[in-house]
Amino acid sequence: MSFLIYFILILIIPIFAQMKVKSAYSKYSKVPASNGYTGAEVARKILDENGLYNVKIEETHGVLSDHYDPTAKVVRLSSDIYHGHSLAGTAVAAHEVGHAIQDKEGYTFMRIRHKLVPVANIGSNFSWILIIAGMIFSIYNLALLGVLFMAAAVLFQFVTLPVEFNASSRAMKQVVALGVIDAGEERETKKVLDAAALTYVAAAAVALLELLRFVLMLTGMNNED
């Protein structure tokens, strides 16, 4: 029964989060922003107002594939956001610029997340292989190493949360202060940002559940020894 509950949770949590963000994006991507700006124009305006003239804006493929690349100093916006004039586009573009502002100011959690990237990548890609191999061949230390790598990946997920929430908070402050949105659009803009943040919360929750499952399996393996 406990395994069934676990399976349901790791299945439902991300699906629910994706449904929320897709619903909010779909709804507000059809609502034109009163300013008439495209997402690219919103991004450029906020960047320039914060002295980030060196940060470029590029169009990228995919849906909701928007991101900020701190290495290249580029805000990449999906085609719908880059060219669109919607409230959803305004919110997403401003959020990604929020990351650029974090980078400029040396935001602590962003620096920590950047340092965790190499080990988090190993944890995401190989930890379960080490764990399963350790259990199959009864090599406790190998399984333990896998759990430690997975823990690093989970830590990365949780460090990501303040980074994303802070970027959204910065985005709201910027679009309000610069008059990018009017008072009547604040609530809708925040809904888009909150829905997007929910996907990161869901990812962190699922990662933690997965880690706890393997920790319990490892504990049982150790007790058998």
TrEMBL record:
<keyword id="KW-1133">Transmembrane helix</keyword>
<protein>
    <submittedName>
        <fullName>Zn-dependent protease</fullName>
    </submittedName>
</protein>
<dbReference type="GO" id="GO:0008233">
    <property type="term" value="F:peptidase activity"/>
</dbReference>
<dbReference type="InterPro" id="IPR007395">
    <property type="entry name" value="Zn_peptidase_2"/>
</dbReference>
<keyword id="KW-0378">Hydrolase</keyword>
<dbReference type="GO" id="GO:0006508">
    <property type="term" value="P:proteolysis"/>
</dbReference>
<dbReference type="Pfam" id="PF04298">
    <property type="entry name" value="Zn_peptidase_2"/>
</dbReference>
<keyword id="KW-0645">Protease</keyword>
<keyword id="KW-0812">Transmembrane</keyword>
<keyword id="KW-0472">Membrane</keyword>
<feature type="transmembrane region" description="Helical">
    <location>
        <begin position="128"/>
        <end position="156"/>
    </location>
</feature>
<feature type="transmembrane region" description="Helical">
    <location>
        <begin position="197"/>
        <end position="216"/>
    </location>
</feature>
